[in-house]
Amino acid sequence: MGFLDLFRGKPWRIQGTGVLPEGLAKKVDLGDPLAGTGKSVLLCRIESRLYALDAKCPHEGGRISEGPLIDGKLVMCPLHNFQFDARTGKAVGRVCNDARTYRVKETGGDCEIWA
Asked: Which domains does the chain have, with CATH numbers?
């Protein structure tokens, strides 16, 4: 553990992420989102790399959908069809706040997320 890791908090460990296929978004719950003590995160594999972003849409609190990525890199909130680049969280083609992204470290078929 490095010095800066002391300030990043403890990561969430997700097992089995190595089997997530290319071009797919999969929702995982960290903690208990229904009890207000956690959150839902989308894991997305793009060009063999794993990315994580908040499943809550920054526009009116909708939910960004899991499933196949649009053009291999975009996720969508079905509430108003807003799209976000899963690598950066940037809103695409609409005036909207960006989706929140999280640091991910993948090792040995599992991952750690700092969320």
From this structure: 5-114 (2.102.10.10)
